[in-house]
Amino acid sequence: MLLQRLVEYASRDPEAKPFHRSRQFQWELRIDQQGKLLSAQVESLLTNDIKGKPRGADHVVPATVRTVGVAPNLAADDVQYVLGWSDADTRPERVAQCHQAFVDLIYRWAESPEGRDDSVAQAVAAFYRSGGLTSLPRDDSCTAKQGVLITVVDDSGGRVPAYRAPSVVPFWSGEVAQRKGGNGQGLCLVCGKIRPLLETVPGKVPGRLVPGASNDAALVSINERVFGYDLTTQLGCSPICISCGEAVSAGLGHVLSSSYSTSYGGQDSRLAWWTTEDVPSNPMLPVFDAAPEDVNALLASPRRGRFEDDELDEAMFCALTVGGNVARVMVRDWLEMPLGELRAHIVAWFADHQMTPLFRQENEYHSLQRFVLVTGRWLRREKRYAPIGAKGADRPDNVQRDLLRAAMRGTPLPPSLLAHLVHRVQTDGRLDTPRASLIRLALMRSPLMKENVMPGLDPNNTDPAYVSGRIFAALEALQYDASGGKLNTTYADRYFAGAITNPRAALVNGRKDAKAWLRKLRGNRRGAAVNHEKTLDSLFELLPAEAIPARASLKQQSLFLLGYHHQRAHRFAALGEAKPTTEEIPA
């Protein structure tokens, strides 16, 4: 079904050309309509990007999958093919073979029925027949794998890239069919028709679109018998006709490079999504943006008994997650479901991670990027999280994929992700609203939870771990008020990390210290002392000493952190503080 959907996607692009792909070109070779060289040297196409790095010009040119063999592309290719120049990393004898194969392809193009009346094809062939390369001085800055674009200048001075000649598409389609065919005729796995079958996939995906790939990557390729079903190689166990094979490659490249795709640095996958019918908006936008007005409207839709644009609910939503290994594309996940079902899962995603914010200016809902970010290391001195993709960030390389799967499919988060997050909170000494939100999401979808966890303070929750977290926050607040906010080492500094796994020791010591804190507070703010004492007494009544966890499980550690966050958020909301400063502990 994946291949069929990619073929359908490719067919919706009216400008798509068969057996073409986008690549960068660093050099340009200019000739006139008689095949004469027009410049004293190859012209550079390099420009600086927004980061100041040199970048070639992007062109969609004829291209096929190229592995270890010599396989020239038409009218535009590498320096070693077009110019026959080698470098320190290439063997001169192989470069000579590549160049001769490219020249032979140009001659076949010019002599073909498609190219005989094409002035561009005749001009390029005339250039090589005349030995025009002998008068072209070599540029030492050229490397063998850089791209060279051949352009023909007409009488008016206009430059026409040779690959845009009208004869290119029909000739190149026949050339690729001859190269890639080899399995005879048979039933195509994709279209279900008896057609000439491919031997190998005719196109590759640029390596920059496939995390983990070091080269341009192919979706289907069996080079050795041991890897194929029934010891078959190439496409023997996956029969695909020529037209479908080209559409699969084109569709895959298009979806992975579209605006409906995402990949974060240091992650092992890239997600691309599309719908089988045109829809007015991006169905995944709320997950990536989490704008409060959009989320609130989305959450209100089920309560009104309908979604917006009900007539589009029959459209199918498709999502493909890929990773790479050298020159191979690995399909990590494939999803196809009605668009209405996706919307329901996204509604559940936001409902399950809703969290009362610690500070007034924060949101209750969070974007996917924010969730990915907070799973990394907190840089205490810089007061920010380690950037996504940075070394030493201690961020799981599959966290993006796990979160997206949970958002789209409505599935639980892996237990390993929750364990990692709790460990990071303990190590960093930081629990903020997004991290608390992510912990709640994991608990809401955990099969170990018998009751739902509230997004805000739940006074009826008597779970010992949850109550322990609330007590810890109450003790922290008491010490802060008793000292007037002037603290060198706080209660949280001493006990927070240990309290996550062993709340009993922290609360027993905190209960003893509370007497001194209350005594000090009564001398300055008697009313505040009374309120703190009432809060602590009511909380300890919910938690007999023997019920305080001494060795907390992962579930109990998570509940402790949620209780701690809820109590702090409740206190800050009651005080009406927009942004506490030194009380924001741990931070």
UniProtKB/TrEMBL annotation:
Lineage, top-rank taxon, reads Bacteria
The family database entries (Pfam families) matched by this protein are listed as: Cas_Csd1
For this protein, the record's InterPro entries field holds: CRISPR-assoc_prot_Csd1-typ
Which NCBIfam families does this one have? cas_Csd1
* Name used for this protein in its record: Type I-C CRISPR-associated protein Cas8c/Csd1
Q: Which organism is it from?
A: Amycolatopsis cynarae
Organism placement in taxonomy: Bacteria, Bacillati, Actinomycetota, Actinomycetes, Pseudonocardiales
From the UniProt record, report the name of the gene that encodes this protein: cas8c
